[in-house]
Design goal:
The protein contains 14 helices and 18 strands. It is an alpha+beta fold. It has two domains: 9-112, Orthogonal Bundle (Helix Hairpins); 128-431, 2-Layer Sandwich (BirA Bifunctional Protein, domain 2).
Length: 433
């Protein structure tokens, strides 16, 4: 794949204050902008010096060509040409070493380590406490019995087996059995069918991808510690289908009539989930291996704001169909992820936590990933190629959705009611012993 920096050097040159402001809003030190500008000035100075020397060399060569005694002129001017040739080589090497496309360039390193520019509509704030609730759907259930957490419900029904999963693989794994496995399969089919109805093309991508593919979607090197990989093979297990779906058109130029492209994929996902201070050590919320349906958009720059709303709405519709209470929150500046310019989290109600918990994160990554993956489009056959905008969101994860379903729809006798929309897929109305 072509190698490009993530943060647009042209934006840093044109509007460095915007880049500094975005960094401050994320809680980052903006001094890297000054370093970028300094290295960029050195890079362009080297290019300019090389071009100046080339022009002078060409002028002298032309002077020799016009001389009446070309041999004498060549002997006289050859030392100048040799000096200019050495200067050109020296400045071109300096420019190459500073180029944002050179692997070891300090300018490239700074641009790779810089997060996406925040959208102006992202609310200010340092952490999740400053996130803004946009809308709420449904009412959290009330129970006239002692409600149980999903891991107790699932184990009691023989639907989830944590003990034997740990025997096989260690902690943070789950084995679904019987009706539990069928419920999980039903959720996957339900999500995929709904995605198809909403206009997404289903893709079954590879689960192992190259380092270049990981890099092109912004997973490396920022999230390298959270990934499972085979160093000898040079392959990584995908942490989300966002990676292969976004990179599917890497190094391609699409026609504007091909946009937007909307993809859906159901895959296992693999992450080294460390948790947060022992949080979510039980149950299906934070596992090393989990499954989900991922939704990805490729669209035009002017189309991405509306695409984010539609993508989020597609994920919300699944929770409404499953009759699960949820809310949508706009992440504040300090909580927006590295690749994203703007993010909405969809949080489902989880009775065991007595709180809303994230079930889908829908992000507009603007041209940030597309610059790395080199995904472009033309507005007309002769038009200059432009970068697409990429968006992604879960639609939805099976484990977290199943956890919410078990807890919100549990009954006093320990059984769980299946929402009507899901029953054609489960072929049972109640999950029971």
């Amino acid at each position: 794949m072509a190698r490009f920096s993530m943060l647009d050097i042209a934006v840093v040159r044109r509007d460095p204050d915007r880049v500094r402001r975005s960094a401050r809003r994320r809680g980052l030190d903006p001094s890297f902008v000054d370093d970028v500008l300094r290295y960029d000035a050195e890079y362009r100075s080297a290019l300019s010096a090389a071009e100046t020397s080339k022009a002078e060399k060409n002028r002298i060569s032309a002077e020799i060509g016009r001389a009446s005694d070309k041999a004498a002129a060549a002997r006289e001017l050859r030392p100048k040409i040799e000096t200019l040739t050495a200067a050109i080589a020296r400045e071109e090497e300096r420019a190459r070493a500073l180029s944002p496309e050179h692997d070891d360039s300090p300018l490239r390193a700074l641009l790779e380590q810089s997060p996406n520019l925040l959208d102006d509509t992202v609310p200010d704030g340092a952490d999740e406490n400053a996130n803004v609730t946009m809308r709420v759907w449904g009412e959290p259930p009330t129970f006239d019995f002692a409600a149980k957490p999903h891991w107790e419900i699932g184990e009691a029904l023989g639907a989830i087996d944590f003990e034997r999963a740990a025997k096989l693989s260690g902690s943070r794994f789950a084995a679904l059995r019987g009706a539990g496995a069928r419920l999980s399969r039903a959720l996957a089919q339900f999500f995929l069918d709904r995605a198809g109805d909403a206009g997404y093309e289903e893709v079954a991508p590879p689960l192992l991808v190259s380092r270049a593919t990981m890099w092109s979607t912004g997973q490396l090197s920022k999230f390298a510690d959270a990934m499972f990989s085979d160093a000898d093979a040079g392959l990584y297990m995908i942490p989300t289908a966002e990676v292969p779906l976004t990179a599917l058109h890497g190094n391609e130029i699409l026609a504007i009539d091909d946009l937007p492209k909307r993809y859906a994929a159901f895959t296992p996902c693999f992450r080294k989930e460390a948790g947060a201070a022992g949080k979510d050590t039980r149950g299906l919320i934070r596992l090393h291996q989990f499954e989900k349906v991922e939704l990805v958009w490729l669209t035009t720059p002017e189309g991405s704001p509306d695409a984010l709303e539609r993508l989020t709405g597609d994920a919300e519709a699944l929770l409404r169909a499953l009759e699960l209470p949820y809310r949508v929150v706009a992440l504040c500046a300090g909580d927006v992820g590295f690749n994203a310019a703007k993010t909405y989290d969809i949080e489902v109600w989880l009775p065991s936590a007595n709180a809303y918990r994230e079930v889908s994160s829908c992000s507009d990554c603007t041209d940030f990933q597309a610059r790395r993956a080199n995904i472009r489009f033309r507005r007309a056959p002769s038009a200059k190629p432009e970068l697409v905008h990429t968006l992604n969101g879960s639609g939805l994860p099976l484990g977290r959705t199943m956890a919410a379903l078990l807890e919100n729809h549990q009954r006093a006798d320990g059984s769980v009611a299946i929402p009507p929309a899901l029953r054609p897929y489960t072929r049972f109305d109640v999950l029971s012993k």
